[in-house]
Amino acid sequence: MIKVALVSLGCSKNQVDSELILGQVSSNKGFQLVKDPYQADIIIVNTCGFIQDTKEELIQTILELAALKYKGSLKGLIATGCLTQRYQGLILEEMPEVDAILGTGTFGKINDVINGVLAGKRLKEIGGPAYPYKASEPRLLTDSHFAYVKIGEGCNNHCSYCSIPKIRGPYYSRTIDDIKKEVDWLTGVGVKEIILIAQDITSYGQDIYGRKNLPELIRKILENKDFQWLRLLYSYPESFPLELLDLMKEDKRICPYLDLPIQHSSNRIRKLMNRRGSRKDLLNLIKEIRTAIPDVVIRTSLIVGFPGEEEEDFEDLLDFIQEVKFDRLGVFKYSREEDTAAAKFDFQIPAEIKEERFQRIMEKQQKIAANNNQKYVNSNLEVIVDEIDKEYALGRTKYDAPEVDNLVYIMDGHNLKKGDIVKCRIKEAYEYDLIGELINE
C-alpha cells in the first residue's frame, strides 16, 4: 500500500482543489492517505503563486519536504496548483527535488502521475488553466460542517496588480444544475454551512448564460432546505447585483456578510489599478447595502504602497476607512508581480513606506473593530462550533467567515461537537474575539 500525504497551501479556492485531489487519491485502492508527511511514500504539495512572499515560503516548504527523501520513506514529491501553472518551465529545471508537476487544470490526472513517479519517471502534466470539476467527482472534505463550493474560476477584471487571470485564465462558470447537485450532496453528508466562492461571484453566469445571474443561482440553491447558513465570497463592488439584497432579506439563511474587495479609495489610484467605479460609487453602494440589511457585516481588502501612491492618496484611504468603519478588513502590502501591468509602473514604493502605511491602517482598524464589536455585548448570537478544547469551544457567528474573521470563545462549550449551531450570550468583546456563554433553551 502506497502512503500518500497532501500539503495544501494557499486560499480557500485552493482548498476545494485539494479536496478533489484527495478524492481522486482515495478512490485508488492501492493508495492510503496519511496526514503525517514523515510517513508518506508520496507527498503532493498544492501551491499558491499569487504574491512574492507566498512564493518564497512555498519554495522553502517544498525544499523542507524534499529532505524527507533522506530522512524518511519519501519516494516522490509532486507539486501542483498556481505556482506550477505559472512557472511550469522553471520548477522542474531549477528544483531537481520535485519529481512531477501538474497544473491547475490537470490535477485530475494525479493518480497516473503518482504511478509514473513510483516507476521512476519525472513528469510534467501542464495544460490549460481551467479545471471545471463536476459534482459527481469524488471529494474528501477538510471539514464536515462547512464546505466551499466553487461556482466559477478565473477572472476577467484584469486589475493591473493581479496575476490571477494569467494563472487561472478567463472567468468560467459552472452550471446552475451542477452546483445545485453539489450542494445537495454536501447537505446529504451533513454540511450545515455552504460557502459559495469564486474570484468574483458577481460575474457568475456571463460566460455560459450570456448574462450575470448570481441571484438566479442562489434561488436555486435555496430550494435545498437542509443547510442552515449560506455565505458568499467574493462580491466585486463594481458589479454588485442589488437584487441580492432582496434575497438576503427574504431568506435569513443567507449570512448578512459581504466581502467587497475595494483595494483602494483614491480615484487616482483606483484608475491605475484598472478598477471601475469611484470613491463616491463605493460609498453609495455601502450605504445602500447597510440601509437594506441593517445588521450586515462588510469585509474588504486593501492594498497599500501601490506604485505612485502618494501621501495624499494614503490619507484618502485612511479617511475612507474612518468614514465607512468596515467591520472586517484585510490589508496587503503591494507585491510587484511579474507579467502584470503595475510591475512596469514607475514610482514603485519602498518597502519601509509600505510597512509604515500597513501599520497605520492596522492601528486604525483595530480601534474601529474593537468599537464595532461592542454592539454584540449582552446580545444573543447563533454560533457554529469549529473546534473543541478541554475548557471551551471555538466558533463563529453568521458575521464571520472561516479562518479570516472573529472567533467566539464559548467558555462552557467543551461538551459541544464540531458543527453544532448554538445560541450564545456575548459577555465580552475585543478587537477580533468575542467571549460567550451558552444559552440553555
The number of helical runs is 15
CATH class term of the domain at 2-125:
Alpha Beta
Give me the count of strands: 19
- Major beta sheet, strand line-up: 2-1-3-4-5-6
Mean pLDDT: 92
C-alpha termini separation? 50 Å
Strand content: 15-25%
Summarize, please.
This protein has 441 residues and is of the alpha/beta class. The protein is built from 15 helices and 19 strands.
Can you walk through the features of this model?
This protein is α/β, with parallel strands linked by helices. Among the domains are: about 1-125, Methylthiotransferase, N-terminal domain (Rossmann fold, 3-Layer(aba) Sandwich), CATH 3.40.50.12160; about 375-440, Nucleic acid-binding proteins (OB fold (Dihydrolipoamide Acetyltransferase, E2P), Beta Barrel), CATH 2.40.50.140. It contains 15 helices and 19 strands. A 6-stranded parallel sheet has the order 2-1-3-4-5-6, sandwiched between helices. Strands 7-10-11-12-13-14 form a 6-stranded parallel sheet. α1 links the parallel β1 and β2. α8 (about 175-190) runs parallel beside α10. The chain is globular, with a radius of gyration of 22 Å. The model has no long low-confidence stretch (mean pLDDT about 90).
List its salient traits.
19 strands, alpha/beta, single chain, 22% strand, 15 helices, Rossmann fold
